[in-house]
Known about the structure:
Layout (H helix, E strand, L loop, with lengths): L4 E4 L7 E2 L14 E4 L7 H15 L4 H4 L28 E3 L1 H7 L5 E4 L9 H14 L4 E5 L3 H12 L3 E7 L5 H9 L3 E5 L3 H15 L2 E2 L5 H17 L7 E5 L4 H15 L8 E7 L4 H8 L24 H10 L3 E5 L1 H13 L10 H11 L9 E5 L7 H8 L35 H10 L6
Helix pairs in contact: 3-13, 4-5, 4-8, 5-6, 8-9, 9-11, 12-13
The protein binds ligand F0G.
Amino acid sequence: xxxxxxxxxxxxxxxxxxxxxxxxxxxxxxxxxxxxxxxxxxxxxxxxxxxxxxxxxxxxxxxxxxxxxxxxxxxxxxxxxxxxxxxxxxxxxxxxxxxxxxxxxxxxxxxxxxxxxxxxxxxxxxxxxxxxxxxxxxxxxxxxxxxxxxxxxxxxxxxxxxxxxxxxxxxxxxxxxxxxxxxxxxxxxxxxxxxxxxxxxxxxxxxxxxxxxxxxxxxxxxxxxxxxxxxxxxxxxxxxxxxxxxxxxxxxxxxxxxxxxxxxxxxxxxxxxxxxxxxxxxxxxxxxxxxxxxxxxxxxxxxxxxxxxxxxxxxxxxxxxxxxxxxxxxxxxxxxxxxxxxxxxxxxxxxxxxxxxxxxxxxxxxxxxxxxxxxxxxxxxxxxxxxxxxxxxxxxxxxxxxxxxxxxxxxxxxxxxxxxxxxxxxxxxxxxxxxxxxxxxxxxxxxxxxx
Length: 451
Ligand code: F0G
């Protein structure tokens, strides 16, 4: 079979590069993608492969245990798989969300919780493949810019691979859960005086000049691993395709990888239809949404502002690939307000699941799309919850104390801050004396069925 290779992404004449060439962009700035030469599967081969994937669930081989490498037939660019760096990533559950379904006006709602990954976010699916490639290419040092989760994930996988890692993060703008991970995993952690977009710019420069391997999702091998989020989801659904996938949009690597997954799965005959894709952005960080509404495919960067710090990104690197995913999956882009995000997050919590704020854009977006009549209440909808609740506990505590502000720096600039209305969904902690009768009185007063 033909070997995998790199190709420029986009409509112009495509240039090709060898799979082991260290390159993330073409000279004209276009992104690169991995081209996977997959066969055209017969119906018999499809069912054989599906059976093989199920058998691998029972295997003790680390490659089979990983929810990424289990699907390695769709990752031919990493052959022969002898450099794999895995933490048993993937294997994330699909949960029904009855409280969220009711909130969003749906009969039912499903969530695939990528926060149940080893470092608590979907980044692990792409990091296992990209660090594996780094090892294959002989990289000694890796780097990324991050709003927090990429850095946590990269630091963990680099530590496993005995590589040095450097993270560039926007100063004071990443959640502590994530920062603590990068520090614990031993990454050289550099706080940049600027936002994520500034960090993203500078890391590309540093990597090029310093001969350091770049692990942001501009690296096409990240996208390869993230494809398996969709493959594993289909496996868990018995290979039936949901009506909708809803995903948060930040740097737009995840949305891009989903589009690529469905393109490849359909082209090789593994599935016969694709779901619709809804990409949801925070209102203050929505360059793709703005482009979608204006039907203008040129990226106009914005100065990003949202308390969902994971997606506080105004100049997303995978913009053009995300547009491809929207086109291929008959997709739609929506935005949601800070209040919508905060309340949807509290509803995900009320389902006993929880997520970090960025993930809650999915449930908020679902509600909005139901109200607009785009999603029907009987549709099968899968929200991709991208990060764990404990990534950003400050946000949750501030929400429940009714002290959630858009401007995190409010302590020094109170006058310029904007409070996020919790609309009665907060669950304030109370202080009471350690006296059983007072406590029992209080508990009795509060005896109500859960909302
Ligand atoms: N949700 C979470 C929890 C994230 O951490 C991110 C991105 C996204 C959604 C958006 O995904 O960028 O693929 O569109 N976090 C990156 C980081 C940018 O540095 O951790 P995307």
